[in-house]
Amino acid sequence: MKVIRKDGSIVERKFEELEGREAFWHTSAHVLAQAVKRLYPTTKCAIGPSIEQGFYYDFEFDFNFTAEHLQKVEDMMKTIIEESLVLQQFILSREEAFHFLEKKEEPYKLELLNELPCNAKISFFEQGEFVDLCSGPHLSNVSYIKALKLTQVAGAYWRGKEENKMLTRIYGTSFSRKSDLETYLKQQEEAKLRDHRKLGKELELFTFMEEGPGFPFFLPKGMVIKNLLLDYWRALHEREGYVEISTPMILNRKLWETSGHWDHYKENMYLTNIDDDIYAIKPMNCPGGMLVYGSKPRSYKELPLRFGELGLVHRYEKSGQLHGLMRVRCFTQDDAHIFMAEEQIKEEIKGVIRLTDEVYKKFGFTYHVELSTRPENSIGSLEDWELATNALKTALEEMELPYLINEGDGAFYGPKIDFHLKDSIGRTWQCGSIQLDFQLPLRFGVEYIGADGEVHRPIMIHRVIFGSIERFFGILIEHYAGKFPTWLAPVQVKVLTVSEQFNDYAKDIIKELKLQGIRASLDSRSEKLGYKIREARLDKIPYVLIIGQKEMESKKISVWNREEGDLGEFLIGDVVNLINKDTML
Q1: Average pLDDT over the chain, rounded to whole?
Q2: Which is catalytic among the residues 315, 374, 427, 494?
Q3: Residue 425 — pLDDT band, cuts 50, 70, 90?
Q4: Cα angle for residues 422, 426, 427 (degrees, 5° grid)
Q5: Residue 455 to residue 503: CA distance in whole angstroms
Q6: Is 188 noted as a catalytic residue in this protein?
Q7: 272 has pLDDT over 80
Q8: Beta strands per DSSP E along 137-209
Q9: How many CA atoms lie within 13 A of 567 on its CB side?
Q10: Is 337 a catalytic residue?
């Protein structure tokens, strides 16, 4: 499909590519606005961007718009698409744009216009009778949209500020194939059943408190899983030659100015004053890693130097953007920063890719890879960017790993490889990332002495595999629908007694299981056995052991498995072997 970029150029893009999806859903938002204006001409239009799973548009209606109106608007959108309207970009001067929008009586667009530079040439997109102040990108024709669904109506403050007027936000999604919409809608139904917020509460894994919105509290069972993830991470990284560091959570403004985050990320940082100076709670771990590298003279013999850090970071997120563990205000990043010589770049990238592949296979994920290139607000020379981008491409191609290119979506300091996981119901999640950085070593002035005795500048890889431990935890809850594999389950075995007279024997069984490193708990309540079994199933326990008169006399245990049901009777040693074998899968 043809995409009109912000500069007016036209390129071919697929829906599966980031630029293609952005243009597709941005155009769908314009179709939504056009449908609303046809049906309700006095409505005022605000903004309508593409988002992660589709698009939305904010409106000011002069009546109470509700979900009951969605079908009428959706039908009008389909009519507009059938008209195969061509999208065209045109440019006006600031003065011309002001008069144009004033005539259309669009106050929100006028406010946006007033914030643009005085000498800016203002971009509009036109489709049929509908014209919107917009820089793009867009599809060249609305007919590329083959299937759509309006999904939700919500309230949204203009510009996200509570002191502004409450607008009506209409959400939707759209696809280039009808079958993709059908798949998406089925996923949404399944996702409701797997919602990590619902399961997290039911399984007592984590919670949120009004005293700290967006800041997760991990409960005992959740901490078991979180620590297992961290232990697994540490074991792998020790094997791969990483050394673990820990850097302070609060560092002064000068550091963030040096790193470039002050200019590029300040609005997402929490600030505080210490000794009459401005400090920031770290939103990233990389500047601290730079300080550790620069804390002593370095030699080429130390390279590559791989620093790993499980660093707690804080980022300001608007309350409306918070979403369980998926979008929080503090989280643990499984960062690593690799310092290397130029000739080591390719092999280090390959090593990270191999490690990332191993981790994702452990959890049963497949994935695809995207390469993101230089954004508009980048720092550094074009030569460095070209060298960095080509190094990532070469590593991917030599490993015969297919990839998509996302133009302009790199970090401000360098291009990156992103790993998009596919979960058990077909949704994708961007988790792992490899970012090649020539800029921070330069900005921090870090060096090493080469084999030639001369001073050289190292090159740096930023990389994460889980990404955010909290977000990855949330993804795992939904991926497994709460049925964690035995090695990761917070309670691997629950022992149930038929009656209280068998509790002492059951406690001996529990003691033996724990001595063998198995996470076991006892349900010794004076409830009926059937009730206890149902509760264990609801708690998604992998193994249930039943202790009664027969078991106590035979010294065997009746074993029930979450997937296969009744497995029969086993000696305690055989039970241990069975569970240990399962944890190795």
Answers
A1: 92
A2: 315
A3: confident
A4: 70
A5: 71
A6: no
A7: yes
A8: 138-139, 147-157, 166-175, 206-207
A9: 20
A10: yes
HSE-CB at 355 with a 13 A cutoff on CA atoms is 25
Q: Give DSSP secondary structure letters for 381-434.
A: -HHHHHHHHHHHHHHHHHTT--EEEETT-SBTTB-EEEEEEE-TTS-EEEEEEE
Q: CB-hemisphere CA count at 13 Å for 45? A: 27
C-alpha to C-alpha distance for 430 and 420, rounded to whole angstroms: 4
- Measure Cα distances from 259 to 128, 289, 313, 455, 501 in Å: 47, 11, 16, 22, 66
Rounded to an integer, the average pLDDT of 102-116 is: 91
Distance CA 284, CA 312 (A): 9
Side chain identity at 455, as an amino acid letter? V
Query: Among positive and negative, which fits the CA dihedral 396, 402, 407, 410?
Result: negative
- Verify whether residue 196 is a known catalytic residue: no
The SS3 assignment for 48 reads: coil
Predicted structure pTM score: 0.82
What are the angstrom distances between the C-alpha of 18 and each of 9, 13, 232, 244, 370?
17, 9, 32, 34, 9
The answer to whether residue 368 is catalytic is no
Q: What is the mean pLDDT of residues 36-45?
A: 96
Q: Which of 34, 127, 333, 439 is catalytic?
A: 333
Q: Is 118 a catalytic residue?
A: no
Q: Which two tokens mark 67?
A: 């979900």
Among residues 58, 334, 335, 523, the one annotated as catalytic is: 335
Token output for 92: 């006006």
Residue 585 has pLDDT above 70, yes or no: no
Q: Which residues contact 397 (CB under 8 A, 6 or more apart)?
A: none
445: tokens are: 């002035």
Active site residue 26: no
For residue 545, the one-letter residue type is L
Note if 462 is an active site residue. Answer: yes
Catalytic residue among 21, 226, 462, 479: 462
Cβ neighbors of 213 (< 8 A, separation 6 or more) are: 319, 322, 329
Tokens representing 415 are 């291009």
Distance CA 211, CA 322 (A): 15
